[in-house]
Design a protein that fits this description.
Bound molecules: zinc ion
Shape: globular
Strand content: 5-15%
CATH architecture: Alpha-Beta Barrel
Largest sheet: 7 strands, parallel
Number of domains: 1
Structural class: alpha/beta
CATH topology: TIM Barrel
Radius of gyration: 18 Å
Helix content: 40-55%
Order of helices and strands: EHEHHEHEHEHHEHEHHH
Number of strands: 7
Number of helices: 11
Oligomer: single chain
Length: 285
């Protein structure tokens, strides 16, 4: 009997870092790039200008391109398209501003990662942005494995016990990967190459190597982002409202699968786990 096809996943990193606001930004960026290089992994970063700030932060994004990784669009303002306060036209303007800032990089690809994975709360907004993207050569860059690394980063930066937080974080990512892989098999009938959402954070500067080792030990193959994004899953346009979230979650929602988390992933699910592990005060003031 042929061996089952290995589960595969691409690693993608959102937001970027601003050395003008965070003194350790360059160190964290270099640590993440160093870990990716040591493990022979090609990745993709989705910077937003709100997170990178000016020249110093944009230079850190250029370092990803120089190291052979890809650079996509995460808008200039990192606004939530699911908010009634943001119009499709304003959002498209933010996409164009980020494009103007990064399109000169050799690693640049016109792939859009929606901030907060939100793609519009009305049909009109959702479809106006989708139409603009098609007319302008943009493809969406959804994630299939949503997770809360940003929340673990918050806890990490508050000084939680390093070894135990690392273990909890690795467990969380493997757990979410297994969950979305199972959901994908349920709603698609096959196992797609996955895309994992991570952030350019202190947490990943510290623990990315452990994450990579744990995924490989669990049978995952790490693939380049364009290998994953070539799968038709990532071009699907689920007709749900509010639009967005991870693509497997959105397809499951469209199919009426019961018992989905909403929001798809959030600190509300992780807080009790970290409290039980003694990594958070049980009764915050
Ligand atoms: Zn973001």
């Amino acid at each position: 009997m042929a061996a089952a096809q290995a589960k595969s996943v691409a690693l993608t990193f959102d937001d970027g870092l601003d050395p003008d606001k965070e003194p350790r930004a360059a160190e964290w960026n270099a640590a993440i790039l160093g870990t990716l290089a040591r493990h022979g992994i090609r990745s993709m970063v989705f910077p937003s200008l709100r997170h990178t700030g000016g020249q110093a932060g944009r230079a850190l994004v250029a370092d990803w391109s120089k190291a052979g990784h890809l650079v996509g669009n995460h808008t200039s303002q990192h606004r939530n398209l699911g908010s009634p306060k943001l119009t499709a036209a304003e959002f498209i303007g933010h996409v164009q501003e980020a494009d103007a800032a990064f399109a000169h990089l050799p690693g640049w690809r016109p792939l859009l990662r929606f901030p907060y994975l939100k793609e519009g709360e009305t049909t009109a907004k959702r479809d106006e942005v989708r139409a603009w993207m098609k007319a302008n050569g943009y493809r969406p860059a959804p994630v299939s494995i949503d997770a809360s690394d940003w929340y673990y980063d918050e806890v990490f930066r508050k000084g939680a016990d390093r070894a135990r937080l690392k273990a909890a974080y690795v467990r969380h990512l493997l757990d979410r990967a297994a969950y979305y892989d199972g959901l994908a098999r349920e709603v698609l009938g096959h196992e797609p190459p996955h895309v994992l959402l991570l952030h350019t954070s202190a947490l990943n500067a510290a623990f990315l190597g452990d994450v990579i080792r744990a995924f490989r030990e669990a049978g995952w193959t790490i693939v380049a982002p364009l290998v994953a994004f070539a799968d038709p899953l990532y071009a699907r346009e689920p007709r749900i409202l509010p639009a967005g979230e991870g693509i497997v979650w959105a397809v499951a929602k469209e199919q009426g699968v019961a018992g989905l988390r909403y929001p798809a992933e959030d600190s509300r699910y992780e807080k009790p786990i970290l409290e039980a592990a003694g990594l958070l005060p049980a009764n915050p003031p």
